[in-house]
Amino acid sequence: MYALIDAAFALPLWVWTLLLVVGYVTYIFAFKNARLVMSNQSRELFTPTWQKDVVYLYGFPRPRVIPDLSPFGLKVETWMRMAGVKYERPEQGINGRPRWSRKGQMPWIELNGEETDDSFFILARLTNHFKDLDTTLSEEEKCVSQAFLQMLEHHTVATYFWYRYVIASDAFWREVRMPFPGYVRWLVQKLTKMGWKKKGHLIGIGRHTTEEQRQLWQADLSSVAGYLGDKTYFMGGPRPTMIDAVLFGHLCQMLYIPIDYPQTAYLRDKCANVVAYVTRLKQEFYSDWDDLLATHAPPSEKYRPTKND
Ligand SMILES: N[C@@H](CCC(=O)N[C@@H](CS)C(=O)NCC(=O)O)C(=O)O
């Protein structure tokens, strides 16, 4: 042991420098920023034979209980249904060619041979290209819509992600039954839990007690219920607007993934108008909901691991 330490101290400075540089670069590429570093490079289209004005939406493989695990992916898909935009969702899977956005996240899209990522920028582009669902809103209503969007996407989401990825992660991964081989699922579960513990601590949600967290998400959900009231769509017009797609993306996560989210009980007991609203949107825009869930592939059928995994 001492001989080893002596030998290490005897190494010349340039060897130490080289070891440190190689170690650091390996760490950055292997664990940390590989996706981000790669992301800025231009890359081939995922769907090279695209049709004009068809949106190719990329996200996680469909889970068993809900069309998309990502509230951001479900928001984009719902918006496209509301706007009547033609889209496809090319299959991505562990044995297919799973690909993250250039920023290392899901969802992302290709439209007319050009890639766009982040649901905010995706909807901005689709709105510009196809249709503006928010034209009927006054300037003041647009501000309200934006405030709710940010609350849901940066605060509410953290409260229920913390629950599903940290507190109830076993139940969560069991219920959604992603079409990954068992060992990949195990790894994804562990990494997501570790990631969310760190992220939850940084943004603060993970430092609160369960009771304090409850006060935080309850304030959000009761404001959604209060603003919705007995309106058909959130902003009160005769047709849905963008915020309805955002709300649907998040509320479905809490209402249809059966893992005893405390939020689910609260919504069912205290926010009957919100539950009825989500049910209405689901009926109106997802008449094929069950068919979408049926496309879920258990690991043994579609995603059998190969030697390339
Ligand atoms: N601001 C992004 C957020 C997207 C996002 O957080 N996606 C999650 C899945 S729900 C993701 O890709 N997480 C993996 C990661 O960030 O490394 C959007 O609106 O699209």
TrEMBL record:
<dbReference type="InterPro" id="IPR050931">
    <property type="entry name" value="Mito_Protein_Transport_Metaxin"/>
</dbReference>
<dbReference type="Pfam" id="PF17171">
    <property type="entry name" value="GST_C_6"/>
</dbReference>
<keyword id="KW-1133">Transmembrane helix</keyword>
<keyword id="KW-0812">Transmembrane</keyword>
<dbReference type="InterPro" id="IPR036282">
    <property type="entry name" value="Glutathione-S-Trfase_C_sf"/>
</dbReference>
<dbReference type="Pfam" id="PF17172">
    <property type="entry name" value="GST_N_4"/>
</dbReference>
<comment type="similarity">
    <text>Belongs to the FAX family.</text>
</comment>
<dbReference type="InterPro" id="IPR036249">
    <property type="entry name" value="Thioredoxin-like_sf"/>
</dbReference>
<dbReference type="InterPro" id="IPR040079">
    <property type="entry name" value="Glutathione_S-Trfase"/>
</dbReference>
<dbReference type="InterPro" id="IPR026928">
    <property type="entry name" value="FAX/IsoI-like"/>
</dbReference>
<dbReference type="InterPro" id="IPR012336">
    <property type="entry name" value="Thioredoxin-like_fold"/>
</dbReference>
<feature type="transmembrane region" description="Helical">
    <location>
        <begin position="13"/>
        <end position="31"/>
    </location>
</feature>
<dbReference type="InterPro" id="IPR033468">
    <property type="entry name" value="Metaxin_GST"/>
</dbReference>
<protein>
    <submittedName>
        <fullName>Failed axon connections-like</fullName>
    </submittedName>
</protein>
<feature type="domain" description="Thioredoxin-like fold">
    <location>
        <begin position="71"/>
        <end position="165"/>
    </location>
</feature>
<feature type="domain" description="Metaxin glutathione S-transferase">
    <location>
        <begin position="218"/>
        <end position="280"/>
    </location>
</feature>
<keyword id="KW-0472">Membrane</keyword>
